[in-house]
Each structure stands twice: as C-alpha cells, then as structure tokens.
Amino acid sequence: MLPLSYKISFYRRIHMKKASIYLDRAFTVGTVDPRLFGSFLEHLGRAIYGGIYEPTHPLADEDGFRQDVLDLVKKLQIPIVRYPGGNFVSGFQWEDSIGPKASRKKRLSLAWKTTETNEFGFHEFMKWCKKTNISPMYSVNLGTRGADAARNIVEYANHPGGSYWSDLRIQNGSPDPFNIKLWCLGNEMDAPWQTGQKSAVDYGKTAREAAKLMKLVDPSIELVACGSTGPLIQTFGDWELTMLNECYDYVDYVSLHRYYENPDDDTANFLANTLDMDDFIHTVSCLCDSIKGKKHSKKTLNLSFDEWNVWYHSKPLDPLIQAAHCWETAPPLLQDVYTFTDALMIGGMLITLLSHADRIKIGCLAQLVNVIAPIMTADNGPAWVQTIFYPFAHVSLFGRGTVLQTLVDSPRYDSKDFCDVPFISAIAVSNENGDLTIFCLNREEQDNFLLSINLRDFPGYDLAEYLQLSHPDRNAVNSQAFPDLVKPVSGKTGTFENGYYQLEIPPLSWNVLRFKSINSKDN
Fold first, then answer.
1. Which of 10, 258, 296, 400 has a CA positioned 20 to 30 A from the CA of residue 328?
2. Omega of the bond prior to 143 within 30 degrees of 0, cis?
3. Which residues contact 317 (CB under 8 A, 6 or more apart)?
4. What residues act catalytically?
C-alpha cells in the first residue's frame, strides 16, 4: 500500500497548474552583446556625490571613490556605463569638467534644479571606469550645444596628440587617449522637459552633422541617435521616422527609454507590462526597418535600450524635495526603495531584452547608485543592495551567450490593461562552454507551478544550480537596517523523466536554473 505522503504529493501534482518549456539547439534568437548589461550614471541626486564618489567616507580610496560601492558594482560585471546624462547632459558644458578642480566652474543644472560643482568630472569618471573595468558610453549635449562641441570632446578623448584638444588632455594628466568607442547623440530631444528640445527634423539634422564631424575625428566610434522619449509621448513613431530620414546613414543605433509603475499595487497588471515592452521593441524595430527600406539601405540599424527600470516610488516626494533643496548640490532625488515585486518586474524586463538579442545590442539599467538604483548608500555609512540587484546580477553573470528560441506553454490570465498574459515567462541562454541557463518568471500569485523543461536536445545534462528569489511579502524591501531581507536562496530541485526536467516553482518567483553537461560539471 502506498504511503499517505506519496498519495498527497501525487494528488497535488495532478491538480497543480502546469507549464512546459521547449528548447532546440538549432533554433536561436541571436548572440547576446555583453553591452546589453550596461548601466547609467547621471549628475542627478546622490548618484555621483555620495554614491560612487565620497572623498570623506572612511572607505574612500585615494581618488575619493567609495570602495564598498566599487565592490558591489564589480559583482554586477557591468560592461558599459552611460554618462553624464540623461536630462543633465542637455545643458552640460563638458569643458567645465576638465582641468584643475579648484578652477572648475559651478553651474546651475536646469534639468534637476541643482548646482553642479564639477568636482567629479571627465577624468574622474574615466579613472572610475578603469577601476571597475567598465567602458564609458559618453553622451554629448545636442540640446543647448551642437556638432562643434561634440567633435571637440571626441578629439579631447580619443586623438593621440598634436592638436589643441588632445594636447590639453595630455596637459591635464592623461597622455594616452581614452579611446571611447560608444557615444550618445543627446538625450530625449523630443521631450518638453528637455533643455533645448527640438523637432524631429531639427534633431535629425543636428545629429547627422554631429555624427559626421565626430566620425571624421575618429572613424572607429559608434553613435546612438535619440529615439522618442517613449511610446506614451505624442511624438512617438513619427519622431523615429522623421529624424532617421535625416541621419540614418550616419548613426549605428537608435535609443529606447521605458519605465514602469505600480502605483495601484496591482501585481497582476504590473507584471504584465512586459507585454507592452515587447510591443515597444517590435514597433521601434519596424520603424527603423521602414527607413532602411525607404533608403534602399543595406544597413540594419540596431537598438540601444539605454534607459529602463521600475520608477514610481519617489515620484510623489520629489517635487517637495526639489523645492526644499532647490539649487543645492546632490540632494536626495529619485531614491526609490524597491520591493520584492519590483524585482520580479525587473526579471521580466530582462527576459524581454534577451528575447530581442538579435536587435538590442546595448542596454542600460537606469541608474546604478542611489537614483532609481540597485545599489544604495548612506552618507559616511554603509552600502547595500536593493531587491532589483539580484535578477540583474543573475542575467549579467549567466545570460551571456546564444539566446535560444524558448517556447513556453503556460496558462494565461487577463489583467486591467492586458489580455492573454502567460503566468510563466522564460528564456534560455547557452554559453560558449555549453552551459544552459533558463531564466523563469512566475506571475501566479497564489499557487505553485509544476514546470516541465524539455531537455531532450541536451542529453547528459543535469541541474548544477537553482537560484530562487521569492518572499511571502510582495512589498518586502532591503534597507540599511535589514539589507538581506530579500535575497536569493537555493531552490528545491526536481527530477528527470523521459528527457524532461520537472520541478515545482513557487508563486510570484524569479527562478534561475543552470544546467551543465555531466562531463563538464567540475570544470
């Protein structure tokens, strides 16, 4: 007679919600560009001052960089960081950020109603990049400035010497060129809040001329043109078509920006927003291809999703903070404290980015420290990681390689704004060592799911690691007092049966399943 525990387990599995994942080595999306796992630092709030740079901190190094923050940043293995903005860059004069610190000009930053001291400038940023093994993605000001200032900074940064700007770099202590290869042509230039807002035609012409001059100085650089601020702004669509008609032949990428909110605490609807993100990416790809066809071009323009995140917690407070700290240096702006549910949304967004690895070559989680960020600090105090740190770290570390077309058969639900939302979303990545990683989001709020993964095309593979992020309180947060309240744990493993790996995954969970060939498990 079967034991009672076996009968209960069998009954649970029979009545449990089920989903299946199907994989085939031959069917791929594309190769992941490592730059997909980039981030963003802007002269905004405490991202720079009190974030990565705090000379008076007990853990500051000889350059004023917080070593505790450096250590956390290194754990994310970020390949690029977009800098110095953001809205900030549209009023920025890059020349203010070089030379002796004592002679640098203080300027009003109109974007955030703060004062920028320029104590942390161009050379400081390049030193920080070297210490973190990060490549810069530098933004030029095409709001209040134009092509001439843009080509001058390329000369300053990349020309070996023998010209005014390159010799000035040498005079300022950097004899070797910085060789910055990736540049942004402005920021959100269709936005009403942008300093130097432009029409699509005017921006397209400005971007074209800046691109021509910048590439005359250094033909090896790549350039990102500003796409529309987002799909909700009135200019979206027409902006891309019009501005690309002017500059398509001179640029290499088009930018996308998107943030998601959950002000009504509607988890089902919030997590369904990845469908909107997927549609956004598809639409921008089609807009780019439309201009490719119109121009009879052989060049396919790829995408740079160089601002993405969850952002809504700080929005009600920020106008009050800005009023109270108007024209101060580094006030505490956009300091979202992220919940466990926010971490799930970040995981879903990362799955969406990977599913478009054939077109999205650059991505920047906005931002990196203190400002809508995975890393938080206290002035003269500790640093800790927010809930969203973990899914980003998982995908950055284990999501590099070839993305497989991942067929997910899952029950679906309808939410307030979306229909036919799969409870289970997943993507699989195979790396150069043959390791297979599956990232899986469970949107179901109440019940476990029985997940079956078809691994018949991966004979001899076994589960090497199962990382799971789940929590009984969907609003749980990490804080200075409780920095480890939400963190990954080892999930309960499953079993193989007829080429399928079966396991239970908990409700509202982020799951990372790492499979290795048995012959390579110890490598």
1. 258
2. no
3. none
4. 188, 307
